[in-house]
Structures are given as C-alpha cells and as structure tokens.
Amino acid sequence: MELKHIPEVKRARKFEASDAGRIIIALLFIIGVMWYASMHASGIEHRTLLIVAAIFGGYMAMNIGANDVANNVGPAVGSGALSLMGAIIIAAIFEAAGALIAGADVVGTIRKGIIDPNLIANTQMFIWIMLAALLAGAIWLNLATAMGAPVSTTHSIVGGVMGGGIAAAGFGMVNWVTMGKIAASWVISPVLGGLIAAGFLYIIKKNVIFQEDKIAAAKKWVPLYIATMSWAFASYLIVKGLKHIVKVPLPLAVVIGFFIAVPIFMFVRSYIAKKAQTLPNERESINQLFTIPLIFSAALLSFAHGANDVANAVGPLAGINDAIMSGEFGKKAPIPLWVMMVGALGISIGLALYGPKLIKKVGSEITELDQIRAFCIALAAAITVIVASALGLPVSSTHIAVGGVFGVGFLREYLMRLEDRAKKEEKVLEKEFQEAKIEEERKKLEEYERALEALGDPKKADPFIVKALIEKINREKEVIASLEHGEIKLTKIEKKAIKALKKYELVQRSALKMIVAAWIITVPAAGVLAAMFYFMIRGIMLPG
C-alpha cells in the first residue's frame, strides 16, 4: 500500500515537548486564565462561577487548537510543502490574528437557534447550561484527539448546548429543525469537499500530469489553477473570515475576489514562464510549483478558522460573563477583549502542544499526499464553503477538509483501475508466489535427501523410514515440476493479498471507518456529557 510517512511528520516527536512538559504548560495557561478571571471578577457576585467558566473556556480553546486546526495545515505538512514546526508557527499566528482581528464581536450561542431561550427559567439556569456545554464539548474534543479522530468543534459545542438544554427543560427546548440541518452537514460537507477536491485533481492530471510535455502544459494551466485558488480564497475570506468586520453579500465578494485574482494570475504566469526554463519534464517539477500557494492557503485557512471558530470556545464564556455582569441572557452582547484573548491564546497553545497528532493523521495516515493533491484539498475547502453559503447549506470545515483527503485518495484508486495496472501487478505477484513456492519446495526436497543420506546403507536402515523418505522426495519433485509449468494453487492468504492489490486501496479503510463513526457520535456524545454535567452542576449549586 502506497502510504509514505513524510519525514517532517515522522519527526513530530522532536517538536513536541514531553508528556509531562505539555501538561505543565497547559496547566500554566489554565492557571493564568484563572488568575486573570479572578482579577476581572473581583468584588462581583457569582465570582466563582465566572472563574470556573473561564477555566472551561480555556480548556475548550486548547482542544480546538489540538483537533480542529490540524485540518487547515495537515495536507500542507503531509505533502512536504511545510515542515511540522513551520505549520505550527504559521497556524498559531494566523489563528490568533483571525480571532483577535476578525473574531465574533457578539455572543451568538443562543442566537444560533439550537435551544429556545424563552424556555430558560432564569439566568442561573442559563449559566449552568453554558458551563455544562463548554465542559462537555472540551472533554469530547480531548477524547477525539486522543483517539486520533478529527471532529467538528462546532458540532461538539452544539451537542453540548443541546444536551444541557434538554437536561434543563426537556426535549421541547431543542430546535430539531436546526439540529436536522446540522446532522445533514455530516453528509453534505465531506461529500462536497471530496467531490470538488477529486474534480480538481482529475483536471490537473488530465491537463498537466498526463501530458507528454508537462512543463509546457504547466506554463499554460498552473497559473490558471493558482488564480482560481486566489479567487476562491479571497471570496472565502471576505464572506467568512471578515464577516464580523464588514458584511459583504456573497455575489459582491465573488466579484471582488475575481479582481484580486487577475493580477495574481499575471504575476504567476510570468513567474512560471521563467522558472519552467530550468525544470526537468517530470511530475516532481509540477509539484514544486504548488508549494508556495499551499503555504499561503494554510495561513489563510487558519485566519478564517480563528475568526469563526474562536466563538466555539469563547461564545458560551462571553455569554456567562454577560449574564453575571448584567443579570440578562440571550441578547446581543459584546465579547470582552480578555475573553477573546483566552480563545486566541488557548487555540495557539493547544495546537503547539497537542496538534501534531492530528496533523499527522490528516496529512499522512489517511492517504499519501503530495503538493498537487494538497492544493486540490485546500482549494476544495474554500470553494465548498462558498457554494454552501450560496445554497444555504450547513457545512463543517473539518468534514470538508477530511472529505477532500478521502476524495483525492479514492480518485487515485479509480484512475489506477482504469489504467488496468492491477491486472499487470496481479500477474507479477502470482509469479512471485510461484517462485517462492518453488524455492520452498526445493528446500523441503533437499531436507528429505539429506535425511535419506544420513541413514547410510538403505539395506541396513529401517525399511519403513526409507520408503517414507523416498515417497516424500518423489512427491516434492512432482510438485516442483508442476509449479515450474505454471500449475499453482494459492492459499487463502495469498488470494486475499492479490485481491487487495487488484483493488489498489490507497485510502486507509480503518481510518475512514473510525473518522466517520466519530463524526456521527459527536453531537450525541457531547450532548450526553453535557446533560450529566448539568445535573452535577445543579446538584452542587442548589442549596442542600
């Protein structure tokens, strides 16, 4: 199976602190959050609740960094365009920048329509629901990261809010239409991402990789592909990454993105025309042309992710902060800078400490990636969000990215079947099995012949032993003769190996099953945890 481990990914442990060191750094961050929250809440009622909420928010932010950010940089690392350390630095900087510059400026957890705020009896119940949701979402993300499963942090916090709401006021509190749309995204996101990524990979293969003169084809087509990425990412950032700074309608964002892409196309065309003069006519040369765009895509995806998903960590925390400060909930309320800092720093720290595991999973353990395939995945992520926004479909950035990885892997399998390589390899494999069996039988023959010689004079030896050895020798000679004439009987294990080769499985099926299972149970798992935590918190807080 063609699954290489990229050197940078294999050296992940060199960039990770020891287990004890990581825990100490994480604890220092939580202690810092706790200290600042205690200073901020000095002299106010329910000070302890705000401190606890800040701790949960910091814990949630670290888990978002450990799990979700890997989807933005994993393909770039797996393809070799970025080193692991470089990816962590870029992602940490741009995640924090996205959160602080373009992060949500108002609390939106309740306004998302997951639960009905009219059924929340009082501020105290609201605070308990948000605390339970934060802790449940964070713990589920922690478990998923430990299992090596990239899951949606949005779905984790949504499941937490849902579970806490059900525990507080029953199933009638949940907006099941909204939850149905979220469940639909489990299918929509990876399928759209996979189809778009596979589609672009097929186009690049057909127009460039499969051409006899790859360099000439690259000069013609690669500038167009990179300009398309620029167009998609510019539109994506305007629609998603900067939506909290300025509201731009999707059609206008697409037009602006086009005018940004035009000068990039002109520059890239000139650059590739010069660079192509020194490039050999091989696939690796084409790969090199996509390295810089991949680095930019990782940075821009991280910026947009920080701008949007920081609310998953600090939205409930900001809601609790506002409820404690004003005594009200469910209304639009500004997110304090200190709350946004908790989210931004927590995501960056979580990525640096625990992100490499998921970066490795997404980048190299599902299927083998190179720069061209990783480029298609990054491009699919931006386009899928734009298409989904136009159609009003709910999508998950995590599911899109992972779906793109699976999409390019399955396309490669399909193309290999079309080229009929498997049949050729099957004959080679059968021949190898045949030669191995002949060698095995010859060793047996030599062993029996040595045993017969060791008996000495056959007339003096035990006649039954002599007869048995002679029969075995004659039988081995017949077997070897039949094998040399092509008469071969394969064992079940050998047949299974040939069958697997014929399928050309370039995607790890075990990873596919594990990830899909984790996606399906994210919302209910977080919901069950949140319900449990809600009852625990209520039991602690209610007077005995």
Structural account:
The structure is a single chain. With 544 residues, this protein is mainly alpha-helical. It folds into 2 domains: 448 residues, no CATH class; 83 residues. It is built from 20 helices and no strands. Helix 5 packs antiparallel against helix 6, helix 10 packs antiparallel against helix 11 and helix 17 runs antiparallel to helix 19. One of its GO terms (cellular component) is membrane. It comes from Nitratiruptor tergarcus DSM 16512. It is a multi-pass membrane protein.
What are the main properties of this structure?
544 residues, mainly alpha, 78% helix, disordered N terminus
Mean pLDDT: 84
Order of helices and strands: HHHHHHHHHHHHHHHHHHHH
Residues in helices, as a percent range: over 70%
**What is the number of helical segments per DSSP (H or I, 4+ residues)?**
20
Total number of beta strands: 0
Gyration radius (Cα, Å) is 30 Å
- Total tally of structural domains: 2
GO molecular function: phosphate transmembrane transporter activity
GO cellular component, one term: membrane
GO biological process, one term: phosphate ion transmembrane transport
Main location: membrane
